[in-house]
Design a protein that fits this description.
Number of domains of chain B: 1
Order of helices and strands of chain A: HHEHHEHEHHHHHHEHEHHH
Largest sheet of chain B: 7 strands, antiparallel
Shape of chain A: globular
Structural class of chain B: alpha+beta
Distance between the termini of chain B: 50 Å
Oligomer: heterodimer
CATH class of chain B: Mainly Beta
Shape of chain B: globular
Number of strands of chain A: 5
Largest sheet of chain A: 5 strands, parallel
Strand content of chain A: 5-15%
Number of strands of chain B: 9
Distance between the termini of chain A: 76 Å
Structural class of chain A: alpha/beta
Radius of gyration of chain A: 22 Å
């Protein structure tokens, strides 16, 4: 009897050691996305949010580099967060939204429509950036299943060691530094700041389909239904960047979709002048993305539109929120100054 | 102890078998990184003949000055497509193993005619008659490292693109 107990205890101990080592190794080799490839850190940053939001942005780089929640707060007292990611495709956005709506119900969800041009999964690398940081639940399972490219397997998301074990000989100081701790946010409520200036010039026009893929439009339909079910106003936007191209046929399709669903749709390329965007000064990569100067102008304009149309409350008198956003604003301004100094 | 070692070994083998490529790695066919492998699917402008994976520098030096350039940034990774705009066409390049190479040639208007005789605006019937293989192959032709893709809409050619035949969609 004693011998059996000892054997059972030994097996249990071996299992604990084995799975402990496995978990530690898994954490070590998984990319940290803190010092490099920071876009992979964005998804997880949402879970550290101390308070709910009146506005949630979802979409690709045209949201996480184009809208500043700090400006929305400072100008209008609007609380917001950007659940955006690099090449975040529409099914990623749908499930990230579904995930967020488990814990909060914003008044407005803003979706940038550029990614609708992709009807099929594009790249494992971007899947990982968008999904590695997502908390486990039905939404993450759905997002993985919807977005896997050929050759990917579900279990490698469950056990990152299966995917990243070949990074053992490529580990960096970042991997060790953030092995057991998170290094804190790399964004400002989902906004990633750039301060460089590289004026827009001629941009390529590529062959394209005249209609957005049915599959991506079906996900947009699901997103609209999800928002309607929760009583949330869905706003569709096309950010004012000029590349990748947003073709008139696609614009007409989204316009028609918005009209048939009673949604607001803003093509901000057409409204650039009214917004005050100048692509000689407000972009850091020839018109593909806005720099902080462009993002701030866009946020001032869009915040006014949102507050007027959706009657969003000015929450600046809320002491707890004011304190939270004051700290964020300080960090934001410090980063802005650092980047401006660096670029000069 | 032996059992634990066997368990660990089994786990190591399991993970080893599940190894996959680095998702950040750029796909490069080692047989396709040298220029000149495009057979008859070359492009020619101002007396300069070039095609897929040719080194960009000598081609750009031989051609008249380009009108402008555009660098398409990846959303997160360090891989940039650079476009050089010329009158009637655009050359796209990528850095492959430290060398800037041509990875696409795109006709941009009806002022250029390809060495194969195609041009934007060419009636579909004329193109089909001149290049039956092209039409039969859904308006795509492959020769070595090059893929010629033609888009036909409303009875005429609306785009002509040369790209690597091994390119991932």
């Amino acid at each position: 009897m004693k011998r059996k107990l000892l054997t059972a205890g030994g097996v249990l101990l071996a299992c604990i050691v084995f799975f402990g080592v496995l978990a530690a190794a898994s954490r070590l080799v998984a990319p940290k996305y803190h010092d490099a490839l920071i876009e992979g850190h964005l998804t997880g940053e949402y879970y550290g949010e101390p308070s709910p939001h009146d506005v949630l942005f979802v979409g690709d780089c045209e949201v996480f580099e184009h809208f500043s929640p700090v400006v929305l707060w400072n100008e209008y007292g609007i609380t917001s967060f950007i659940r955006g990611g690099a090449q975040q495709l529409v099914w990623h956005s749908y499930y990230l939204l579904e995930d967020a709506l488990k814990t909060e119900t914003p008044k407005v969800v803003v979706y940038n429509v550029l990614a609708l041009k992709y009807g099929e999964p594009q790249s494992e690398a971007y899947n990982r950036l968008n999904l590695d940081g997502m908390r486990w639940g039905t939404a993450k399972i759905g997002a993985i299943r919807a977005g896997m490219t050929d050759g990917e397997d579900f279990m490698s998301y469950v056990f990152p060691l299966l995917r990243y074990h070949d990074r053992f000989d490529k580990l960096t100081q970042e991997d060790v530094r953030y092995w057991f701790k998170d290094g804190g946010p790399v964004s400002f409520k989902g906004y990633v700041m750039h301060a460089g200036v590289n004026p827009a010039t001629e941009v390529p026009s590529d062959p394209h389909e005249t209609q957005l893929p049915e599959s991506s439009m079906a996900w947009l339909e699901k997103m609209a239904a999800l928002c309607e079910e929760k009583g949330i106003s869905l706003v569709l936007i096309k950010s004012p960047s000029i590349y990748p191209q947003w073709y008139p046929e696609w614009d007409a399709q989204i316009e028609a979709f918005a009209k048939s669903h009673g949604l607001r749709y803003d093509n901000m390329i057409e409204k650039s002048d009214a917004i005050g965007i100048d692509l000689n000064t407000d972009t850091y990569d020839q018109g593909q993305h806005l720099n902080v100067y462009g993002a701030e102008k866009l946020s001032v304009w869009f915040g006014r539109e949102l507050q007027t149309q959706y009657d969003l409350p000015d929450r600046r008198s809320d002491a707890a929120l004011a304190e939270e956003y004051a700290k964020l604003s300080d960090r934001y301004e410090a980063e802005k100054q650092r980047l401006i100094t660096e670029d000069n | 102890m032996k059992k634990i070692a066997i368990l660990l070994l089994a786990a190591a083998l399991l993970f080893g078998c599940a190894a996959k490529d680095d998702p950040n790695a750029v796909f490069v066919d080692p047989n396709a990184i040298q220029g000149g492998g495009y057979g008859e699917l070359y492009f020619e402008a101002d007396g300069v003949r070039f095609g897929m994976f040719d080194e960009a520098k000598p081609v750009l030096e031989a051609l008249p000055a380009y009108r402008s350039t555009f660098t398409e940034e990846s959303c997160a990774f360090d891989s940039a497509d650079v476009s050089y705009f010329f009158s009637g066409y655009r050359i796209m390049t990528n850095e492959i193993d430290g060398v800037e190479r041509i990875t696409a040639i795109v006709c941009t208007d009806d002022t250029v005619r390809t060495p194969q005789g195609l041009y934007i605006g060419m009636p579909e019937a004329d193109a089909a008659a001149a290049f039956p293989l092209l039409q039969q192959n859904d308006w795509n032709l492959v020769d070595g490292t090059a893929l010629l893709s033609v888009t036909v809409q409303d009875g005429s050619i609306v785009s002509i693109v040369y790209s690597p035949s091994n390119a991932e969609d």
